[in-house]
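Troubleshooting: if your tokenizer reports a length mismatch, compare your output against this known-good record of 278 residues.
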Amino acid sequence: MTRIAFRKMHGLGNDFVVVDRRRDPVLIDAAAARALADRHTGIGCDQVLLLEAPNDSLAQVFMRVLNPDGSEAEACGNGTRCVARLIAAETGKSELMIETAGGLLDAKLHKDGGATIDMGRPRLFWRDIPLAREMDTLHVKLRRGPLSDPVCTNIGNPHATFFVDDAKAIDLAALGPKLEHDALFPERANIGVATVRNRHTIRLRVWERGVGITRACGSGACAALVAAHRRGLTGRRATVALDGGDLDIEWRDDENVLMTGPAALSFEGSFDTALIGA
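Known-good structure output:
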């Protein structure tokens, strides 16, 4: 039986199984991702991150993101910080380029083990989210229970951010899956509920597309800051407080969004290929 090495990592409790396919070129398909992500019979995680050889010569690695339901996500902010930490240790570089299905992401490592990721420019036009029909993305005509009038943003993947008086009081477990699969979102969407505490702090909870409620969502935090600034509720920089901790988000004047936060290695191990049917 063949064993495959993995690392278990997390960013503010948003946890990942990282498999380096450059070293172990085992096929990790949708079924394998579901098996690895299962918290009862597998390793357990919010997403499986696959490290592959980059297609772009500017990048040090290609990061593929698979959700627990087997679907592929274009980007993952917390996961990118974790991968940046691994590649920095591998290369000795503190500034890196990570290729994803959503594009190239600049990463800068900090001495405390955290990282700043340049998530690029948010896409704000309805076709870029994408939405099923033409609509003002600053005030989207969508209502479900107590949630209405979200701001939609694509920050590598689609997000709908609802502003509420108390994010903790929203039954996100019930509302999240219905909104994720709403017909307005042909590629589904991540659903955020945000409370603006002041012009420098946002409280956020996120139902992640293909995952469920997570303790933190990096791209969701970026989308929340962009949405809040577009609504005139905050400046261009704020602390986004998630269940797992805080991220510093800045929407720079050049329109790129910077996300800064921690990345941690929990443990390393190996799994038998029988777990993924290989």
